[in-house]
Automatic annotation (TrEMBL):
Species, as recorded: Mytilus edulis (Blue mussel)
Family: Belongs to the LDH/MDH superfamily. MDH type 2 family.
A GO term for molecular function: oxidoreductase activity, acting on the CH-OH group of donors, NAD or NADP as acceptor
GO biological process, one term: malate metabolic process
Domain Lactate/malate dehydrogenase C-terminal span(s) in chain numbering: 291-465
SUPFAM superfamilies in alphabetical order: LDH C-terminal domain-like (SSF56327), NAD(P)-binding Rossmann-fold domains (SSF51735)
InterPro entries: Lactate/malate_DH_C (IPR022383), Lactate/malate_DH_N (IPR001236), Lactate_DH/Glyco_Ohase_4_C (IPR015955), Malate_DH_type2 (IPR010945), NAD(P)-bd_dom_sf (IPR036291)
Superkingdom classification of source: Eukaryota
Domain Lactate/malate dehydrogenase N-terminal, chain residue ranges per copy: 141-280
UniProt name for this protein: Malate dehydrogenase, cytoplasmic
A Pfam family reported for this protein in Swiss-Prot or TrEMBL: Ldh_1_C
Coiled coil regions, renumbered to chain: 167-194
PANTHER family: MALATE DEHYDROGENASE
The keyword Membrane is annotated on this UniProt entry: no
């Protein structure tokens, strides 16, 4: 099913004409869907530029009208301005606008005043609103320590969003949590309205809008992979059941760490039926940032200048680092341009043997090398990957840029529906991610992605085999393990875990 989107300046008479024609179509056509976007005159040019850059369109005036498929996403098809929309409506539906100039001007003035009133009401509502509840698990982890300041000063959820922070860890860590709470309060951030500490998952997840899972279940030397996978599945399934009952139904859950992130995300989706499956995601950005840093070192640019580098597949298993569409800003080459100007990273590197061998090895060993140099697991870079991901998910990512994220597939790129896989995404719409679906894959990429797919499937098979051998029959994935919501009970299944989460 398709819908028509009409966007324009609040005071624009031609937007008023397009709006009224859209209303007429909606009244007369049973399956016609209409969505309107109104921008104040001061915001219009920036909004239009960002929208067109993101979708690859050329359009310079108000209004702009496009058509998009409701169930498939994508950038949509540009129709044009008011005149083009009128021709479209007449050509497809035989309906024309009958508005005269005086009516258009009157309605445009009403639109402008209405938008002013709405903005004012939203500001007043935010001023009266309660804080959003955010939980961080395994909160004595150094990674948690690295992200609290960013959350408290508004870098993650917005400069006007107050936070009630829930810190969750085991009973034996409560004294440390109390110290962490005191230090967080000493930050004196006005947005950090309250900080609570607990070892009870029901209390921790209650009314939460966002949850960051830092738990890292390390594989013991004597533990085979199937037992490790099963232990992870049980632990995160137990979390999911509590989230399903205690958190808000639109809660956003981010899984991190060095464990089987894709598998853990999959298990949480199976055990939290009340939460939309798109609200459970696995962090790919740490690996993505590692890969960007290696390219940046090679080209002698700032890491932030490397964009559109994608991690496909199994986050902490078999994955494919895709440089083919990567671009670089700020490169000191023969061709210069404004800050928005970029050059293809593969062409700037211009060393195919390095990209095919040395580069892959440097990315794989970067985390290990940092750990060796630091004498402990990196936490600052892990925290930065988490906070930037949450910021983009909550407030929107930069227009025209792609990022990596492990999400539940809907069949994109022939990845089976329901499998958690790291895809290229954009998050321009606040609170949502969208998989970029128009990338043409080379045969080499298809082969690499197929290998990552097999690796993810093998983890599911490991979990199923362990369940069969330990219980005599195969359980459904949604059953998980009957675990009490108290975190210390969960910890009994978490032998060998660590708080050094990344």
């Amino acid at each position: 099913m398709a819908k028509i989107v009409i966007a324009g300046k609040s005071e624009c008479p031609y937007y008023a004409r397009a709006e009224l024609l859209g209303d007429k179509l909606a009244r007369n056509l049973p399956n016609f869907q209409l969505h309107k976007i109104v921008q104040q005159p001061d915001d219009w040019e920036k909004w239009l530029k960002n929208t067109c850059n993101e979708r690859g369109w050329q359009h310079m005036k108000s209004p702009i009208v496009w058509r998009e498929l409701v169930d498939r996403g994508g950038k949509g098809v540009l129709i044009g301005g008011a005149n083009e929309f009128q021709e479209y409506a007449f050509g497809y539906y035989g309906i024309q606008s009958d508005q005269v100039s005086n009516d258009m001007n009157l309605i445009s003035k009403e639109n402008k005043q209405y938008k002013i009133d709405i903005v004012k009401e939203e500001a007043e509502f935010k001023a009266r609103s309660s804080p959003i509840h955010v939980c961080i698990t395994c909160a004595t982890s150094p990674v948690c320590y690295a992200i609290i300041n960013s959350i408290g000063q508004g870098d993650v959820f917005g400069k006007h969003t107050e936070i009630a922070l829930h810190l969750l860890d085991t009973n034996d860590k409560l004294e440390e949590l109390e110290g962490l709470k005191m230090e967080a309060e000493d930050l004196a951030h006005g947005l950090l309205r309250e900080v609570s500490v607990t070892s009870d998952t029901k209390d921790a997840f209650k009314n939460c809008s966002a949850i960051v899972l830092l738990d890292d279940l390390i594989q013991n030397p004597e533990e085979d992979k199937s037992a490790w996978i099963k232990r992870n599945s049980s632990h995160f399934s137990a979390y999911a059941k509590v989230i399903n009952d205690a958190a808000l139904k639109n809660v956003k859950v981010l899984l991190t760490g060095n464990g089987p992130v894709n598998m853990n995300t999959y298990m949480m989706i199976q055990n939290a039926p009340n939460v939309p499956r798109q609200n459970f995601v696995g962090l790919s950005r740490r690996i993505e940032n590692n890969a960007k840093a290696v390219v940046a070192e090679r080209l002698k640019v700032n890491t932030s200048g490397v964009v559109d580098l994608i991690v496909w597949g199994n986050v902490n298993g078999e994955h494919y680092v895709d440089l083919t569409r990567s671009r670089v800003h700020g490169y000191d080459g023969a061709i210069w341009g404004p800050p928005s100007f970029s050059l293809p990273a593969p062409e700037m590197v211009w060393d195919k043997p390095w990209m095919e061998k040395d580069y892959i090895e440097l990315v794989k060993t970067r985390h290990e090398k940092m750990t060796e140099n630091l004498k402990h697991t990196p936490s600052m870079s892990a925290g930065g990957a988490i906070t930037s991901m949450l910021e983009h998910w909550w407030n929107g990512s930069p227009a025209g840029q792609m990022f990596s994220l492990a999400v539940c597939s809907e069949g994109w790129y022939n990845i089976p529906d329901g499998m958690v896989f790291s895809f290229p995404v954009t998050m321009v719409s606040k609170g949502y991610w969208n998989v970029v679906q128009d990338i043409e894959l080379s045969e080499e990429m298809k082969t690499a992605i197929s290998a990552t797919l097999q690796d993810i499937q093998s983890e599911k098979d490991e979990k199923s085999e362990k369940t069969e051998s330990s219980e005599g029959e195969k359980q459904d994935d949604s059953e998980g393990e009957k675990t009490d919501p108290n975190l210390d009970t969960i910890e009994e299944e978490k032998t060998g875990s660590t708080t050094e989460s990344t």
